[in-house]
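Researcher: Let's do a round of design. I'm pasting the structure tokens now; please hold your answer until I've finished.
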């Protein structure tokens, strides 16, 4: 269940190259162009590139995280626009195919991956949901294709069997959980209730929040791990109400709107009990139709550094309808890193690209956009890509070793200010 170490990856790349096995790729539904990658574990098939870097996106167009789709697509599209304007990868435009990841209530993600593999994608960017990614990771990495998520935060992916082909630009939940737990305690909540959706994302994040609250001197007086597909949450909220916590942590996706309505109905409004949300439900579209002030003062955490104003303007030029920018920087960085690793590998094969992702993310001359970085590579220099989302220095598990968590606050319009109250940066391993 452990990812292979860097040395093991390097050996696997050599073996894959010498065997020259047939490529297994895949693509989705849009066009731009791709490049090869190499380096996974011994059990990963060697993917032979065709000279064109092909990216597939597996991002939410429908389902419980559909609100995250627009900024994630915009981040990838902006990166590919800049990459192709700079001459593409390996002398050719990058090709892109877009597909829908849906959510765990459907089989959309599996069908989308089949489509992307049939279109010979070298790398697939997505999914947003950790549970969705977990459901398709074997299919993607088993084909020798890179699985790169801009938004998966479940701690499971640090040790999951991935043949050395899974990477992410968002940090594991143990960092977000520490930041959120510290915030809850520092806000004076010595008694805390937790409502968490029951899956690898919700329960894992709840575990870390609970540990941090307890370590900080607080007490988790009630915890409910609920079925997000439930039609009614009255019994779950009744358990929280009975414990009468000062602070209430809500960990979920779009179903949180129903949870919020039930909290208010049972006399636990944010004006009396401090509410806290996480990246899965901190949304500017999910609560806007509620009574004004319902979420006033509620705080939420979202992984990632501030999206600079100039970057936001570029995203809006790509998609003028964007309402927030969650995970746009991580998506942008994912596409750039894949493209730079392909250039460094001089191959568009998934396994070759994987073998260079750690190398282009740290230890060399710093650069922060594709053109500047690729010019250094062509000059024979080692590079260190500094992303919009942060330094993005991969550790041996494919996780960013250092990451930033933003703390946001809702206003009376039930939207959170896109400028964070503060950012907290820390090492993933504590």
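Researcher: That's everything. Go ahead.
Model: Designed sequence:
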């Amino acid at each position: 269940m452990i990812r292979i170490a860097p040395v093991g990856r390097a050996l696997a790349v050599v073996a894959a190259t010498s065997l020259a096995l047939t490529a297994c790729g895949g693509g989705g539904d849009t066009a731009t162009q791709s490049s090869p990658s190499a380096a996974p574990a011994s059990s990963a098939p060697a993917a032979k590139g065709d000279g064109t870097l092909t990216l597939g996106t597996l991002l939410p167009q429908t389902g419980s995280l559909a609100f995250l789709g627009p900024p994630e697509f915009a981040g990838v599209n902006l990166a590919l626009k800049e990459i192709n304007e700079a001459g593409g990868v390996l002398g050719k435009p990058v090709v892109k195919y877009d597909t829908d990841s849906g959510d765990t209530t459907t089989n959309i993600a599996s069908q989308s991956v089949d489509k992307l593999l049939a279109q010979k994608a070298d790398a697939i960017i997505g999914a947003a949901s950790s549970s969705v990614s977990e459901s398709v990771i074997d299919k993607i990495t088993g084909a020798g294709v890179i699985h790169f998520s801009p938004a998966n935060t479940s701690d499971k992916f640090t040790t999951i069997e991935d043949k050395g082909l899974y990477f992410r630009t968002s940090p594991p939940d143990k960092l977000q959980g520490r930041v959120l737990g510290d915030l809850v305690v520092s806000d004076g909540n010595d008694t805390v209730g937790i409502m968490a959706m029951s899956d690898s994302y919700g329960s894992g994040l709840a575990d870390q929040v609970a540990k941090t609250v307890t370590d900080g001197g607080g007490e988790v007086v009630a915890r409910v791990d609920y079925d997000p597909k439930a039609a009614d949450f009255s019994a779950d909220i009744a358990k929280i109400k009975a414990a009468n916590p000062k602070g209430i942590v809500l960990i979920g996706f779009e179903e949180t709107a129903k949870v919020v309505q039930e909290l208010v109905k049972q006399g636990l409004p944010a004006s009396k009990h401090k509410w806290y949300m996480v990246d899965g439900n901190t949304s500017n579209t999910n609560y806007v139709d509620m009574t004004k002030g319902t979420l006033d003062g509620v705080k939420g955490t979202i992984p990632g550094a501030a999206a600079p104003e100039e970057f936001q303007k570029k995203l809006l030029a790509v998609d003028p309808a964007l309402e927030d920018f969650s995970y746009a920087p991580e998506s942008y960085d994912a596409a750039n890193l894949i493209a730079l690793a392909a250039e460094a590998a001089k191959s568009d094969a998934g396994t070759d690209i994987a073998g260079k992702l750690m190398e282009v993310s740290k230890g060399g001359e710093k650069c922060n956009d594709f053109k500047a970085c690729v010019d250094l590579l062509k000059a024979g220099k080692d590079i260190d890509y500094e992303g919009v989302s942060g330094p993005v220095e991969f550790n041996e598990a494919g996780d960013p070793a250092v990451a930033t968590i933003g703390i946001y606050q809702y206003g009376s319009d039930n939207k959170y200010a896109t400028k964070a109250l503060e950012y907290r940066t820390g090492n993933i391993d504590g």
